Amino acid sequence: WYRWVENELDGNYFALYVDTDLYEPAFPEGSLLIIHPDIAPEDRSFIVVKKKGSQTHCSIKKYVVDGDHTYLYPINPKLAIETYDDSLYNICGVILEVHQKLRSKR
Description:
A seven-stranded antiparallel beta sheet has the order 1-2-7-3-4-5-6, with no helix packed on it. A hairpin with a 7-residue loop joins strand 3 (45-51) and strand 4 (59-66). The protein is 0% helix and 41% strand. The chain is mainly β. It contains no helices and seven strands.
């Protein structure tokens, strides 16, 4: 069975299943992410973000505040750091929990 842990944050949550290895090692393929869509990210929060105009593709980024600037750091260090601009991005939610399968049934 799966038991949910109580959280002090009110509101609705949703879950995303990570179906790619692009976010490893922080979020291994097969992880289940618990996301709160109604809270603002804080410095160094992991977020789910979508470029405006994109109907389907979301990315996981680290939200980093440095003085007056905000950046979206990729999980994969080989990818470029992007400057956050709320006219270009929608933050879908802040990742609160990560659930992983540590062993297969075999």
